[in-house]
Amino acid sequence: MIFNIFYAYSIVMLVDCTNYVEHYGLQLKHLNKDKPNEEPVYEAVSRQVSWDALQPLSSAILFKLQRHSDHHMFAYKPYQILETTEDTPTLPMGYTGSMTLAFCPPIWKKLMNPMVEAINRGEVISKEVKARNKRIIMSYLGVVWAAITLVTFGVVGVKA
Does residue 142 sit in helix, strand or coil? Predict the structure, then answer.
């Protein structure tokens, strides 16, 4: 019973985290915002409302989930033929890395918010933001690597 509860909780967390990462911060524009008494009208769905991840590991593990923007544009397409284009927002770490990073909200927001703001303004993500994100990612990976190493040596121990 305890295993089943843990297993179900893990699956729900995985699905929710994936959905969070896939759509973080990207929004459809509210077209009739100036008319509050009318039913809201939003722009048509475009590639700009979900993140893609072009990393091969994301493709292999998550069955082409990385081409999520194409799925939003053409929901009828089977996943095997989903495509990616140059104009889609792209996650800097792929889904696997982004999902682990999302569990550390301050770093996640520091990494993603400048990209989200640029995309929502219709701008291209600048080289400075990309370079800054690379530094953040490398620092994060260094800390994670160090923590895993310390835990491994603490649990397994070092035999001389």
Answer: helix
Would you mind telling me the total number of residues written for the chain in this entry? 160
CA 57, 98, 115, 130 torsion-angle sign = negative
Q: What is the pTM of this model?
A: 0.72
* Of 49, 54, 127, 126, the residue nearest 86 (C-alpha): 54
Rounded distance between C-alpha atoms, residue 142 and residue 136, angstroms:
10
CA distances from 60 to 64, 66, 78 (A): 7, 10, 16
Number of neighbouring beta carbons within 10 Å of residue 129: 16
Neighbouring C-beta atoms of residue 50, cutoff 10 Å: 22
**pLDDT class of 51 with cuts at 50, 70, 90:** confident
Task: Kindly tell me if the per-residue pLDDT of 160 is higher than 60.
Answer: no
* pLDDT per position as a tens digit, 113-129: 998 988 888 888 888 88
Residue type, 67: R
**Single-letter amino acid, residue 142:** G
* Crossing angle of the two packed helices 94-101 and 2-23, in degrees rounded to 10: 110
Residue extents of the structural domains in the chain: 2-156
